[in-house]
Amino acid sequence: MRSEQEVRELMEKLSKLSSFVGEFGTLKELYNKDVQFACNASDVLDWVLGEITSESFISDAYVNLTHLEEIALMVERRTGKKSEDM
User: Fold this and answer.
1) Per-residue pLDDT reduced to its tens digit, 27-45
2) In this structure, are residues 71 and 64 in contact, taking their beta carbons and an 8 Å threshold?
C-alpha cells in the first residue's frame, strides 16, 4: 500500500500539470489521452484522500454511477449476460 504522502504528492503533480495544460494548452493538447487520464487519476486520488466525498464522486460530476448502471443494464438486455456474473 502507498503512503498518504506518496499519493498526495502524485495527485498534486497530476493536478498541477493537467491544470497547466488546461489553462494554457490547445484543445488538442487538452484532449490528449494522457492529459485526460491524468485528470481522471487526479480525481480518483482526490476521492481516496477524502478531498471529494463519495456522494459527489459517484454523481454525474465524476463517475456518474447511475448512468454506468444504466449502460450495464442495456448490455445485459442485449446479451442476456448479467454484470453480477463478472
Assistant:
1) 999 999 999 999 999 999 9
2) no
Three-state DSSP at 34 gives: helix
Residue 64: give the domain boundaries.
53-86
Kindly report the pTM of this predicted structure.
0.81
Position 84 scores a pLDDT of: 81
Q: Is residue 60 domain-shared with residue 42, that is, in the same domain?
A: no
Q: Does residue 18 contact residue 39 with C-beta atoms inside 8 Å?
A: yes
Residues 39/80, Cβ–Cβ less than 8 Å: no
CA distance 21 to 14: 11
pLDDT at residue 83 greater than cutoff 90: no
Question: Is 84 found in the same domain as 68?
Answer: yes
